[in-house]
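Quick entry, no commentary yet.
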Amino acid sequence: MDNFVVSARKYRPVTFDSVVGQKAITSTLQNAIRTNTLAQAFLFCGPRGVGKTTCARIMAKTINCMNPTSDMEACDECESCRSFNSSNSFNIYELDAASNNSVDDIRNLVDQVRIPPQLGRYKVYIIDEVHMLSQAAFNAFLKTLEEPPAYAKFILATTEKHKILPTILSRCQIFDFKRITVDDIAVHLQNIAAKEGVQAEEDALNIIAQKADGALRDALSIFDQMVSFSGRSITYKDVITNLNVLDYEYYFRMLDNVLSKDNNAILLLLNDVVENGFDIQHFIQGFSSHLRNVLLAKDERLIELMEVSRQLKQRYREQAQKCTQHFILKALDLANQCDLNFKNSSNKRLHLEICLMKMCYIGAAPQQQMPQPNVQQPQQQPQQQPQQQPQQQRRDDVTVAPKSTPVVREVRTTRLNRAGTISINAEENKKEESVVEEVWNNDFTQEQLSKAWNDFILLNQNSSPVFIAGIKRAEPCIKDKWEIQFKIDNILVIKDQNNMHQLHEFLKNCLHNNQFVLKEVIVERPKEDIPYTDKEKFERMSKQNPEIIAIKNSLGLQLDI
């Protein structure tokens, strides 16, 4: 039985042209070889599985090739290429810095640099995971990296560039490898499947490419895993089952339920997701991505931005026709807020259910309506002026306190409206101002007002102690027919809009009157002269009881102050 070789090794690129998804870097390296402008040191950095070490080996093989092609690829026929292919090349050294990160390891490497190549033009040193070198090893390597022999080339590879000393970075040409796109990975997997005689669905390979997160090596490992699971036929259903990926069908059905405002179907479908063992936070994240794809499908120019198969793109087009752009943006905002507040929620499932049901009640986009002529407006205007004029006068009034009361510093008038209902659209709140409120105009006495005020204090003294302390000595009184005046000594009391609104609502219900106006009078309480030093305390005591001085003198006592 032949030994099995994983696809990541079996189909590892051996030429620049076969490197997947790094065309800009491979072209730069080929041009540098063609023009003989190779730097003394290179730094290949980027995430895992994107081709850093592979490109380093291809470059080391190519620059030592005796008969390179016109595209600056190795010929695979000369003695240098044959020795490289059989892993017997004495001109190419690979060092794993993760396990050889001491000063002695770097000193051994520096000693080898002094020996010129026996075959070929260059001696190439590939140091993988170079960020694992110790501080002392970096310092020992610094001088050789700065002034190596002409035949020595260094290729450093790392996934964490920020851990490398700036003095090392300044001596290298830096190449940043990008994550490989889903389309490039899917196409590469399709080619490998054809070579291996494996039938693979396009959607299945697309899911594998997404799961790899830009790393081709991870995608090939998942591909081998799926071949072991499914045999010679890889289906979309097998992939999502084996990789525990939530099916796209759940997202399409969930959005259809939201559009039809079927709350029961939403709860049942979410329960199905939970019972299948999926994390509900992953569901809301996936649903957000689904909404984004629906938004992209609204415009033909943006469809190519979706990292899905062609069949799914067509389904997104069909579902996008059912949604307005306003709805999608509002739903995306709700899903994003749900994801942000997910960890802070004590009942996470209920938190997600509320978010999904809120999406059912997203209204249409607000439209600006042109003002329509109102025939009755000239007749209504004289009736509204007498009602608004006294209120305007009340706002401008200044109450002058009598001599027996504290000095009045500032007077403000507070008129609170009735609480509005909660709305998803901020624009809808403006429409509530036009709602006509039922008029309550029962007369009330000072005794009824004082009782309602004290009842509010007793009910809320535990829930809002700071606000209650501010209005406890307010002494509310009836000044005019619909004006209630109260005193406060803290401006922060009237700035507490929530509690002021609760007070207004409580008084309105108790007095059965919604026409009154709360007018607060900000007063300055007399400051208490508090003694702090021992001398001040003695003087205060002696004024209250002069016999203390007589006792002090008779006993010949001295104050220690």
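second:
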Amino acid sequence: MKNYISDYEKFDKENAYYGNDLGVTVDGEITRFKVWAPLCTAAYLNLYTGGDGDNRVETVCMRKIESGVWYVELFHDVYGMYYTYTLEYEYNETHEVVDLYAKACGVNGNRGYIANLAALNPEGWEDSARVVCKSPVDAIIYECHVRDFSISGTSGVHWSKMGRFEGFVEPNSRYEGVATGIDHLKELGITHVQLMPVADYATVDEKKNGSGQYNWGYDPKNYMCLEGSYSSNPEDGDVRIREFKTLVMELHKAGIGVILDVVFNHTYYTTESNFHMTVPYYYHRIDEHGMFTNGSGCGNETASEHLMMRKYMIDALKFWVTEYKIDGFRFDLMGLHDIETMNIIRDELDKIDPSILMYGEGWTGGESPYPTDKLSFKWNSYSFGRIGLFNDNIRDAIKGSTFNLHDTGFVSGNRHANSAIKRGITANARYKSLQGTADDLCWAFTPAQAINYCEAHDNHTLWDKLSISVSDRSEEDRRRMDKLAAAIVILSQGVPFIQLGQDFLRTKPKVFKAHETANETNIYDGNSWNAPDETNMIRWDEKKKNLDVFSYYKALIALRKSSPLFRMRTSEELDEHLFFHDNGDDVITYELYSKDECYLIALNPQNEKKTVNLPNGVFYCRLNDEGKPVYKNVYGNVTVPRISCAVFKRIKE
């Protein structure tokens, strides 16, 4: 298709549309359709009775109005109908496209669906509300994939709901007496679930629902529609909406917020994407040769700096918040989005609810032609300080480089990681007492900007990484390393982030193909985006097997929630209330102090017990290496067991 745009800034000035009524709007018995397609020569609305198949019932000519918008209105009720647009261009080029602003879709997302959204609210929806989160540092985020959560036979979920929205919130699910599913989330004590992409994606055939197909969902197709493979009936455009609203409502009832993983940085299709076929060469970045650039590593990258792509992102996010009561967003490859767009999005979400969380990956998947000083890279963080960033510095300091499987980190005995760990404890924010120490790692504007983690869906799980990098150590040693890693993530300043199953030593065993040979390294899958359920599913029997590890994570979360000293808001608070003690290179020890409380946290990665000095006063062990308190008065010198974290709380001065 020919590129009709030579000057994008000029094109935006002449064609950008600022109305809030793109897509389908219903006013009484009048249904209006608007599509922004300034380059086409004619546009038609197609109405269907089904999400696929030969069932078109009407084609209506649309007329061009202001700013490149094509418009038609129907004087009858079309709820329950499916629709597309046919757009004609010069050189006899015609494309049938899905409305970019479709709020619902049919099977496999090939047609938009006209849903009566208000009629699909489950009972009790109006009484449920977003979770109150006064500051991002009050959040404890748990990343989940809908299918992984309940597809295993050990999930205790009814077979008809396994791997689906319904199964995610089925109450009272158990494996041999151990809580699974939503009851597990409540038991653990996390505050927010981050759902891996649930917007409509391309590579799972919804017509073969239940056939074992799998994808993480980073192959976006329709950004305001829900993925049908997670519903009980992908053929009915209403069902996925009702079931997802039920999921959100039940999590809210449990006091758990819902964060969506959004993938605006690229489209799965390029020339065949609805974006490109609606306005050719507009929504993506193009190089000087007219080729799609590939900063995502997925074949293209979107152009967030173009006004209508920026508007699209804003409109989509506001829709998810207002229609589904979403509590936050995680931006995939956020480094591809321009800083101005991200700050505008933050402003717009603030108008709805300032507590809505916003964070993302401060990197790209490839090289982008857009100026790096204008993109949302981690090193530009002070330019968008109200938006969080994944802290890959603390991640690699804890367990060793993600990209070198045999590299070790602090918990596995690498003493060179101490400075990076200290920076991570202070949320990689400005902290006076560390000035001159690993200053290149001081990037966060406030503690709330650092999303601390050591495991996510990408790369190997923490347990698998340890199984490779310190395979010569005993399982007991590696269990202690895992628990020490959890203590660093959960007790550091900033926002803790945990992957589903990390709290009971999740592993991802690789399923080998006929031509592949197993070795001691590749038996674990570090890139399971389309691996089968046997690799990705949560085996809830592992929770029962590793209940001591789960209990330790649970205790860490309870401790973090118990005191504001673990959740400081500003760098000034860090300077006033956090003090590192000098214990050489063996143990990292720091004090959290206020007029009401005093804690000493000791992190001992050594394979032998160590002695540390308590501040003045009488203390007790608030959390030992089993995650339990020891109600015995201690003062002066105390012992920290090998490869462990110990937390002491002052009783009196």
